[in-house]
Amino acid sequence: MLDPPTIAQRVDVCKKHFAFSMKWKGDVLGIVEMRRHYSNYFKGVSHFKEYRTRLVNTMDEKEIYAILAEVEAEFARYEFA
Question: At what angle do helices 61-74 and 27-34 cross, to 10 degrees?
């Protein structure tokens, strides 16, 4: 069985998904439609709610990337069961 993806891997794929969403749907719709996916990318991560709330309440692309970088740094040592 495969090990679960690390936080760095989850963040990397989330950033790629976000970039494709922005390219495909445009700035506003890309940001709005991406909101539904953050919970899935970080399912099982304790204390993620604060970050999810910030991700879904901003309309600034650079801020989203900054928050994702914070998530990667904050949870770098997180162990998945």
Answer: 30
